[in-house]
Write a structure and sequence with these properties.
The chain is elongated. β8 and β9 form a beta hairpin. The protein starts with 5 loop residues before the first helix and ends in a 5-residue tail after the last strand. The strands form five sheets. A five-stranded antiparallel sheet has the order 16-14-13-15-17. The protein has a three-stranded antiparallel sheet with strand order 1-2-3. It contains 14 helices and 17 strands. The chain is of the alpha+beta class.
Length: 387
């Protein structure tokens, strides 16, 4: 039997990349050492390393195995580019691999984004955080994007997955799509999307404008359509195209239900910050009409005591002014279950100082035509400063 040489065996182990810490313990016993490559402690035996040819360091062995597996799973650049384009993004740099982000251009919102390939291709997640709504964008940028889609924002940007009160720049109707949905659809405005106009849709548009059709849809948005103005019960000759554009019933000289011109009254101006709108209105003293509006989120800005006749004249003065300026209504029928939505305007179209001017001009005009309001001051009383 050949004599064992501990020094030779130590040299063989050292040549395999180990710094031995103890004398030779025996062929099959753990031999404490430090790996020269990773500086981690090892306890491999002489037999496993020299006789069987195994790696001297477990840690290095794991790393090599992982690297080999990663090379096996590596995605070719051309395959990665094809896959990532299916998520509607365009690569702006060479594919960096699955372990880092990939700079791309979102073809939906046209923003540069950092994409995790594994998240998009393997997990099926969306590529763009802006389009998905998880990334917040500045209000000014969001407004610009919405305007490019044909909608004018009426309130501050609430987030891409929240309903955003807006007005269509084509038909002037108020809609509330989310920014995400507006990006995806051909028509951002639901009314423009149906304008071709199915009879049922035409009837719904008339009803939303406060008109009840008395005849069947004439078949054209330009044709005269007899209808009844729901607020006053008078018959009008409406044109659907004008109703769509103005969002206002054709009858502007209607008698208010329940309002008595012979009684002391008030002219009031209200605002609703969440709806981004203002409302002009009249009520008899003690009627509780203003309280009803306040219960639905409206706040007083101005109120002036007038006679019933003066109040009607003043309100019509304001409405005629808004109509002459071609200002669409500020809210829809669904926004005001208590009624009064036909006397509203968007704060985006008419600022609070301008509304105060409209109010004061109307009061002065009404008092000039019919002087002597019943009791109280004839000057407008500012009851709130909200904007």
């Amino acid at each position: 039997m050949a004599k064992i040489d501990p020094i030779a065996r130590a040299a063989a182990m050292s040549a395999r990349g180990l710094i031995l810490k103890d004398p030779y313990p025996g062929a099959d016993k753990p031999w404490p050492a430090i790996c020269k490559a990773c500086r981690q402690p090892t306890r491999s035996s002489y037999t496993s390393v020299i006789t069987k040819g195994q790696g001297p360091c477990f840690t290095c062995g794991q790393r090599k195995s992982s690297a080999a597996a990663a090379r096996k799973r590596a995605v070719p650049a051309e395959v990665a580019e094809t896959k990532i384009r299916e998520a509607n993004v365009k690569p702006l740099e060479t594919f960096p691999g699955t372990q880092g982000t990939w700079r791309c251009l979102c073809l939906t919102c046209l923003r540069e984004i950092d994409v995790w390939y594994s998240s998009v291709v393997y997990a099926g997640n969306g590529a763009c955080d802006y389009c998905s709504g998880s990334a917040q964008i500045p209000d000014a940028d969001a407004r610009g994007e919405l305007l490019a889609l044909g909608l004018e924002a009426l309130i501050p940007y609430p987030g891409s997955n929240e309903k955003w009160r807006s007005r269509c720049t084509t038909c002037k109707k108020i809609v509330d799509p989310t920014l995400c949905n507006a990006r995806k659809t051909k028509f951002s405005c639901r009314f423009c999307a149906q304008r071709a106009t199915h009879p049922d849709v035409a009837v719904e548009i008339m009803k939303e404008a406060g008109l009840r059709p008395l005849t069947a849809f004439p078949g054209s948005v330009k044709a005269v359509w007899r209808a009844e103005h729901v607020d006053c019960g008078k018959q009008v000759k409406a044109v659907l195209d004008k109703v769509i554009q103005r969002r206002r019933a054709s009858c502007i000289h209607c008698v208010r239900r329940g309002f008595k011109q012979a009684l002391p009254s008030s002219l009031y101006l209200l605002v609703h910050t969440d709806l981004g709108a203002a409302k002009i209105g009249i009520c008899n003293d003690g009627s509780g009409r203003i309280r009803v509006h306040e219960h639905n989120g409206w706040s007083q800005v101005l109120v002036t005591p007038l006679s019933g006749y003066q109040a009607v004249q003043a309100e019509q003065h304001v409405l005629k002014r808004w109509l002459a300026l071609d200002l669409p209504q500020g809210v829809s029928r669904l926004d005001m279950p208590q009624g009064g939505w036909t006397e509203t305007v968007a704060l985006r179209d008419r600022s609070l100082p301008e509304l105060r001017e409209d109010f004061d001009a109307a009061v002065n005009s009404a008092m000039t035509d019919c002087p002597g309001p019943p009791g109280g001051s004839s000057l407008s009383q500012e009851t709130g400063r909200l904007l």
